[in-house]
UniProtKB/TrEMBL annotation:
Classification via InterPro entries: Bact_Lucif_Oxidored, CmoO-like, Luciferase-like_dom, Luciferase-like_sf
Family the UniProt entry places it in: To bacterial alkanal monooxygenase alpha and beta chains.
NCBIfam families per the UniProt record, alphabetical: oxido_grp_1
Organism in which the protein naturally occurs: Amycolatopsis rubida
CDD domains the record matches: Flavin_utilizing_monoxygenases
Lineage of the organism: Bacteria, Bacillati, Actinomycetota, Actinomycetes, Pseudonocardiales
Name this protein carries in UniProt: MsnO8 family LLM class oxidoreductase
Length: 317
């Protein structure tokens, strides 16, 4: 089973955005060495705990620092950008790194209402049309307006989502589909089923599904649960309407009644079973791992452990 990385460039307690972005490059180099398939960077705005705000810029740096791994946006929030500019940016990336660039497209605004107001996004109903316009810039046919760097330099385009509407649009356009299981696991089975049932060949001839999963891996169950205290504390703060940076486990305030959300924490054997269950539930062709651990060395170890078990994960039935 292919595994990939979704990295928000988290700003953990006691660190800065600059340090978070430097850690992203370091983690990408490790992921490349370990044999992860792709490395995606999301677009978030006005979020004090997330440094990944400019995925095109971060993707350029990560692609320069790595050799084999695919790199891209997971994703560009297209309501915030003119499709022409996105095509030019990712066409340029694809020209510098042929065969290695991905372009995931999302409908969300990527931040709190104040950030959305500053971005002045387009209306939500314009999203399907913007996706189609963007795809036209990468087409071979002559267009009235050319996105010049995009001609002949085409990234792998994905549609991102966390519900059935995005699944239907991906199927209609014949695009591969990435589902945010780490955000809305209850919607996953229905969305991925609808996508496969309604898929029409387009830019891809067969349906393809990536599912993003939040994972905290450690050598022992106790250690994994200890590391997961950080994300449990963040879940508790969200339930209280608060926003905190990911704390150190020893500083984390947790409530046993409030779980960490859809985060899989455990030792390799237990995680193998948990990930198998996700694959069976969603029909995933590939898993994209996001890991909310405070300590960077522990986070890297977690990704190494997941990669060790990934070859034992079954392909989609």
């Amino acid at each position: 089973m292919r595994v990939s990385v979704l990295d928000t460039s988290p700003i953990v307690a006691g660190s800065t955005a600059r340090e978070a972005l430097q850690r992203t490059v370091d983690l990408a180099e490790l992921a490349d060495e370990l044999g992860y398939h792709r490395y995606w960077l999301p677009e978030h705005h006005g979020m004090r705990g997330v440094a990944s705000a400019a995925p095109a810029v971060s993707a350029a740096r990560v692609a320069d620092a790595t050799k084999r791994i695919r790199v891209g946006a997971g994703g560009v929030l297209l309501l915030n950008h003119p499709p022409l500019v996105v095509a030019e940016q990712f066409g340029t990336l694809a020209a510098f790194h042929p065969g290695r660039i991905d372009l995931g497209l999302g409908r969300a605004l990527g931040g709190p209402r104040r950030a959305a107001d500053a971005l002045n996004p387009g209306p939500a109903e314009s999203f399907p049309g913007r996706v189609k316009e963007l795809l036209e810039y990468f087409a071979d046919a002559d267009q009235p307006l050319r996105a010049t760097p995009a001609r002949g330099n085409v990234p792998e385009v994905w549609l991102l989502g966390s519900g059935t509407a995005s699944a239907r649009l991906a199927a209609e356009l014949g695009l591969p589909y990435a589902f945010a299981y780490h955000l809305r696991p209850a919607e996953a089975a229905a969305a991925t089923r609808i996508y496969r049932e309604t898929f029409r060949p387009g830019r891809t001839l067969e349906p393809s599904v990536v599912v993003s999963v939040a994972v905290v891996a450690a050598v022992t169950e106790d250690r994994a649960e200890w590391l997961a205290r950080s994300v449990r504390a963040k879940a508790l703060s969200r339930s209280r309407g608060e926003r905190i940076l990911l704390p150190r486990p020893e500083d984390a305030t947790v409530d046993p009644a409030i779980g960490p959300g859809p985060v899989l924490a455990g030792a390799p054997a237990a995680l193998r079973n948990s990930l198998r269950a996700v694959i069976a539930e969603t029909g995933a062709d590939e898993l994209m791992i996001t890991t909310p651990i405070h300590d960077h060395a522990e986070r890297k170890r977690s990704y190494a452990l997941v990669r060790e078990i990934s070859d034992a994960l079954p392909p989609r039935a």
